[in-house]
Design goal:
The chain is an alpha/beta fold. The protein has a domain of 188 residues: P-loop containing nucleotide triphosphate hydrolases (Rossmann fold, 3-Layer(aba) Sandwich). Helix content is 33%, strand content 23%. It contains nine helices and ten strands. The strands form two sheets. A six-stranded mixed beta sheet has the order 6-7-8-3-9-10, sandwiched between helices. A four-stranded antiparallel beta sheet has the order 2-1-4-5, covered by helices on one side. The longest helix is centred in the last third of the chain and has 18 residues. Bound molecules: adenosine-5'-triphosphate (ATP). The site of adenosine-5'-triphosphate has 10 residues, from helix 1.
Length: 276
Amino acid sequence: MSNLKILEDHPRNLPKAGGVDMLAENVSTETKIHVDKVSQRFGQTEVLRDVNLQIKEGEFIALVGMSGCGKTTLLNLIAGLANPSRGQIQIAGATVNGPRKSTGYMFARDALLPWRTANDNITYGLQLRGVPKRIRDEKARYWLRQLGLEAAGDRFRAQLSQGMRQRVALGRTMALEPDVLLLDEPFAALDAQTKQDIMPQFAQLWAESGTTIVLVTHDIDEAIALADRVVVMGRLPGRIVMDVPVPFKRPRDVNSLLDEADYREIRHTVRKGLMS
Ligand SMILES: Nc1ncnc2c1ncn2[C@@H]1O[C@H](COP(=O)(O)OP(=O)(O)OP(=O)(O)O)[C@@H](O)[C@H]1O
């Protein structure tokens, strides 16, 4: 199965008679994602309780929390892969009732199609959407170049390192030009050095694309290096216990940030939040 769930047209996602639902009055017009008093139960277990979160258009949010606190559950709800037990989620003013075409979702472990080259993995989603080959190839060339993979376009999965696979998976997601990108620990499988190489590249891509991003990570340094805000979830039932703005200018150099007092303070605050 593909690790990339580009969320295809879904019957539940068709425009509703009477137009899209309107945003609540207190939601700013620049809000892209609005998680509104969302709770989720699985049987007897309450996994999320009253989660409220507003994410602006083009904003980059990192979601951190202890294992099992409900991060992936929240991401799945934003993706429209499930409906919340209570509350609602809106994207660009429309209630999420199912998968949305322009939401991209990428997971920790790539699952590139082994019989397709890097080039053809990048174009896979475009092909499913019936984009003509000439345009697909143009986009693949563009993303291979953006991701430093020009020389790897003809290689198959087995001929790519883990870092390269993750970049191809990212290219496949980005080629579909999502306006919302959900990332569930996309760098977790990478070694420290590869991660350090990829992160600035990724931050640059985000800055150029204007995509709204929700990144789930266990790595506080990764969260601070990439995000505009670090949102901390408490233990079950998952709820938001802290929302920490990250004030550092971009591009950010993680190594030099480590020496800054502000950085250490943010790190300390987030760690305290994780324990609550
Ligand atoms: N479909 C489901 N049915 C029943 N329980 C579920 C389901 N999905 C998740 N859970 C439970 O909900 C809780 C939260 O899971 P979730 O995967 O959202 O946590 P997480 O914060 O992403 O964890 P991790 O950081 O370990 O990936 C867990 O206790 C999990 O067992």
